[in-house]
Specification:
The chain has helices at residues 2-36, 172-177, 181-187, 204-214, 228-239, and strands at 37-43, 58-64, 83-84, 99-100, 110-114, 120-123, 132-139, 145-146, 152-158, 197-203, 219-225. With 240 residues, it is an alpha+beta fold.
């Protein structure tokens, strides 16, 4: 009887020892796997440029830790509401330069103003959303001069049908995001319409100055494309 009990105790101890060894092995394996991989945010489907991200569009993907770069996102909540600058493929790790939450929105000190047509003498045909432009005064009531010392950002450029003006096959914003100056240039040659309205991000002081000068009808503004737009492309390229 004692012999059977001894055998049973020995067998139980062997089983428990085996389970303990297996448990330690699983824990070590998980730890090694955690150390060698990282979960990054990826789209669950193809997402075109211009779409706004929601959390249901996003998932996670395990990649080798050695492949991780700081520009990748680890939490889908960080991406909610961001606008896609370039098309994103399914299961492609998201990089910070490919999205922007406030790309064309005014800053805290600004608002977006649609410039009345009768305030405008001329608009450069090549301006697009995201560009920097210079504003100049022209008219009998004032001496021709630059209205603001600094350039301002174009929030949108619309056709009479309320469509954003761009080259649909070669978006200026996509070229800008890729720091592709040749693409930016090409996008301005084949637009999908004529400029009917321009929206600019201005401070309150800038708008009041523009409005006070132009509302009488004797002075108008000339909206000119600024080469600072190309500086933005270079900055984005350097950021990557």
């Amino acid at each position: 009887m004692n012999r059977k009990r001894h055998l049973w105790v020995t067998a139980s101890a062997a089983v428990l020892s085996g389970l303990l060894v297996y448990g330690v092995y699983v824990l070590q394996l998980r730890q090694v796997k955690f150390q060698e991989t990282v979960n990054v945010v990826v789209p669950v489907r193809f997402i075109d440029a211009g779409e706004r991200l929601t959390t249901d569009m996003l998932g996670v993907k395990q990649i080798a830790k050695a492949s991780y770069v700081p520009e990748m996102f680890l939490h889908a909540e960080e991406m909610d509401g961001m606008e896609v600058i370039v098309p994103l493929g399914a299961n492609e790790p998201l990089l910070s330069w490919k999205v922007d939450k406030f790309r064309l929105l005014p800053s805290r000190e600004q608002a977006t103003f649609q410039i009345p047509r009768d305030y405008v003498l001329s608009v450069s045909n090549g301006i697009r959303a995201g560009d920097k432009v210079m504003l100049y005064l022209s008219g009998e009531a004032v001496a021709s001069a630059r209205l603001f010392a600094e350039s301002v950002t174009v929030a949108s450029v619309k056709t009479s049908g309320n469509l954003e003006i761009d080259d649909t096959s070669n978006s200026n914003l996509m070229s800008l995001a890729n720091s592709d100056k040749e693409g930016m240039y090409a996008a301005r040659r084949d637009a999908n319409g004529m400029i009917d309205s321009v929206n600019l991000n201005l401070t309150e002081a800038q708008w009041l100055k523009l409005d006070s000068i132009c509302k009488g009808g004797n002075s108008k503004v000339v909206i000119a494309y600024s080469s600072e737009s190309l500086d933005i492309a270079e900055a984005k390229g350097g950021a990557r």
